């Protein structure tokens, strides 16, 4: 990838949305649940705390599976690959084992 996030930003590839029910019914876009799981594909180095000036490195690493707010991040498309750019604090949790 030619794009690298800065500060505490992370790039996340969202999991595909479920477009049909278990019974085979096709769901329209407005009825589909927004994806809240994904995989971290790039991380920035971290940021400096505003009050203390202490450098705080990012906690997440590439390949980590995460949960996040359904409307978190801004979509970017680079070289045909779609991913979401969000601050690390928008990630709710790390998925350790599925």
Task: Please give a structural write-up.
β3 and β4 form a beta hairpin. The protein has 98 residues and is an all-beta fold. The chain has no helices and eight strands. It has one domain: GroES chaperonin (10 Kd Chaperonin, Protein Cpn10, Chain O, Roll). The two termini are 27 Å apart.
**Domain unit count:** 1
- Beta-strand segment tally: 8
- What's the overall geometry? globular
Specify the CATH class.
Answer: Mainly Beta
Q: Give me the secondary-structure category.
A: mainly beta
**Gap between N and C termini, in Å?**
27 Å
What share of residues is helical?
A: under 10%
> How much β-strand is present in the residues?
35-45%
Q: How confident overall, as mean pLDDT?
A: 84
- H-E string: EEEEEEEE
Q: What is the CATH H-level superfamily?
A: GroES chaperonin
Strand order of the largest sheet: 6-7-1-2-5-8
User: Which architecture name does CATH use?
Assistant: Roll
Task: Profile the largest sheet.
Answer: 6 strands, antiparallel
Mind telling me the C-alpha Rg? 16 Å
Which terms summarize this structure?
six-stranded antiparallel sheet, mainly beta, 98 residues, two-stranded antiparallel ribbon, 10 Kd Chaperonin, Protein Cpn10, Chain O
Write a concise synopsis of the structure shown:
This protein has 98 residues and is an all-beta fold. The chain has strands spanning 9-14, 37-43, 46-48, 55-57, 65-68, 74-78, 81-87, 91-95.
